[in-house]
């Protein structure tokens, strides 16, 4: 059986202020959960961090109950619990970054974009949401290259198929959203 890989980032479940700033719909959590349920059981879901904001225990359990796939959490700047806490709340693997050779590419998965040190072909990351770069750290913006691929939830509120992202990487390149 073939394994499909999906990637999402910056769910920010329960983060009302961010939802208002990014003009997310009032029922954004229900939309996200509905779309995550569509990820097949024999798949791997890679979440690029910033899962929940407030009531983390409840949000992580809700996410776990709706996820059939194996799940990887790449910790974001709002994910501040211990590794054991995340494992106890349903995550199969938790890290700050991981690299994977897949679909003919060396991919670095991270929450924030990482410096291109030549060790990867693509850096699939989150953190920038709707690409409002004026609000983000200039050191992050200055490190962006054509190897940086942004995953954001603000348009479809659904995980992206990783093979689709790689095949259409120009549509996801972080520099295109500046």
Characterise the protein shown here:
The chain has helices at 16-21, 28-37, 56-66, 83-88, 138-142, 162-167, 169-172; strands at residues 5-8, 44-47, 70-74, 93-95, 97-102, 105-110, 122-125, 148-150, 160-161. With 178 residues, the protein is α/β, with parallel strands linked by helices. It has a single domain, classed as 4-Layer Sandwich (Purple Acid Phosphatase, chain A, domain 2), CATH 3.60.21.10. The strands form 2 sheets. It has a 5-stranded mixed sheet with strand order 4-3-2-1-9. The protein has a 4-stranded mixed sheet with strand order 5-6-7-8. Helix 4 links the parallel strand 3 (70-74) and strand 4. The longest helix has 11 residues, at 56-66. The termini are far apart.
Please give the largest β-sheet: 5 strands, mixed
CATH hierarchy class name = Alpha Beta
Q: Biggest sheet, strands in spatial order?
A: 4-3-2-1-9
Number of helices: 7
Residue runs with pLDDT of under 50 for 5 or more positions: none
State which percent range the strand residues make up: 15-25%
CATH superfamily: Metallo-dependent phosphatases
Structural class: alpha/beta
Mean pLDDT: 89
Based on DSSP secondary structure assignment, what is the total number of beta strands? 9
Rounded to the nearest angstrom, the distance between the terminal CA atoms is: 39 Å
Number of domain units: 1
Q: N-to-C SSE series?
A: EHHEHEHEEEEHEEHH
> Which geometry do the CA atoms define?
globular
CATH architecture: 4-Layer Sandwich
State the helical fraction.
25-40%
